[in-house]
Amino acid sequence: MQNTREYEIAGRSYNQEEETVKTYFMGRVILTQLVVFTILALIVFFISRSGSGSADRLKELYKNLFVKDYTASEMFSKAKDVMGFVFLPQDGGETEETTSSDGPYGAGGEDLISPRDNASFSPIYLSMPIHKPVVSERITSRFGYRINPVTNEYGFHSGLDLAADEGADICAAFDGVVEKADKSPARGNYIFLNSDGNIKTVYCHCSELLVSEGDEVEAGQVIAKVGSTGQATGPHLHFEIRINGIYYNPEWVIDCDGA
Prior knowledge:
Layout: H1 2-50, H2 52-65, H3 72-86, E1 138-141, E2 144-147, E3 154-157, E4 160-163, E5 169-171, E6 176-184, E7 188-195, E8 199-209, E9 216-217, E10 222-226, E11 236-243, E12 246-248
Antiparallel strand pairs: 1-4, 2-3, 4-11, 5-10, 6-7, 6-9, 7-8, 8-10, 8-11, 11-12
């Protein structure tokens, strides 16, 4: 009789462990299904809102859900990225990649090949004010996936292209120290500015640089002039915001309606 009771107790213990495993597994399955359903439900919205770039991003997210075994926290992060698309700042006039002979229309620059780990669509809120980097008539290329207007290749645009007149002032967005003032085939003449809070702002395609590496500048100070150097279809400023090494959409923090 004693052996029988021990067997029953052991049997109950085994069943409890099995039920725990089943509960965990089902929780993972349900979480995955919720994320996938969210993505599918929003595809039509994204296509109507942002064009094929958003749809391609969603396809990539959907595919990645089934090629990796994500933890619950990683699944939550994926869902957060998807929701970031929904709550992107509202368009402020012209659509991306706008080209017109009426006023400035420049765009361009190099794109990231694989931004999964260092770019985010999540909103950002800054505790310090930001100075508008340039007076612009239109946004010619927004943050996110796109067909590069110069190379015609698909990639991830890590900043915002703000069309402006050749020679217009480019101002520092924050107080900071110039990390780099250089030129490259893609960026043209460019500046990297380091500011408090692990914030780095980037200014590309300048016709002229007015500061040098190591210079301390103040928010609103003119640091360069608008140009079309590097990969560009015309005069504009390619402006980036990076926080702790992560690329964020500048539209969250600057007024792009006549920015």
